[in-house]
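[Automated response] Your request has been received and processed.

Submitted sequence:
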Amino acid sequence: MRCPFCGHMESQVKDSRPSEDGAAIRRRRLCPECGGRFTTFERVQLRELTIVKRSGRRSPFDREKLVRSISIATRKRPVDPERVERMVNGIVRQLESLGETELPSSAVGEMVMKALKSLDDVAYVRYASVYRDFRETSDFAKFLGAEGLSDVAEDEL
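Generated structure:
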């Protein structure tokens, strides 16, 4: 594993242990060149997934992009990062178990919305506002009414 600090091509594994949900192996590494310490995660990947965008463009599935978008939705919310990690692992497992190598981005978006709804209402509305491309406050009002979330405080959004 290449050192992220100095670029040295080798590193030593100092500690390995399963992650919280057992879906990955966490490895603490040490660079013999610069002495830098860093962590890597090893995950099982059943198949290469390709996401088909609304425009028809195809791109490889990027787990980190999924994590970033969910992190933005849950920013400054009382959500445990471990729950977010478990949620992401669950979504990835669902995507891989569909048996398809090409998936529409809408399928990923709907899975994220479903998972966020059970995690945090405000994060769910934040994500939906970007995913569903809300343009005006009336779009929020319609969405909140349709989803039965009209009790979500406006100041939390």
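Summary generated for your ticket: The chain has a mean pLDDT of 85. The CA atoms of residues 61 and 128 lie 20 Å apart.
If you did not submit this request, please reply to this message.
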